[in-house]
Amino acid sequence: MYITGIKTYMQRVDERPRLLLKIETSEGISGWGECYNHGPDLALPPLLDYLFHQIEGEDPRRVEFLVLKLNQQCRFPPGALGLAAISAIDHALWDIAGKAAGLPVYRLLGGSVRDRVRVYCGVYTAPDPEQVLDQTLKLNADYGYTAFKLSPYRRDLHSGRWGELVKETGDWFGRIREITPSHFEFAFDAHAKVFEPYKAVQLAAAIAPNDPMFYEEPIRPEHIPAWKELKSKVSVPLATGESLYNRFEFLNLLTQQGADIIQPDICVVGGVSEMRRIATIAEAHYVSVAPHNPMGPLATAVNVHFCAAQPNFHVLEFKPHGHAPWARDPYMPVDGYMELRPDRPGWGIEIDEKVLEKDDYVHWERKVTRKPDGSTAYP
Question: Which of 55, 74, 149, 285 has minimal Cβ neighbours within 10 Å of its Cβ?
Answer without folding.
Answer: 74
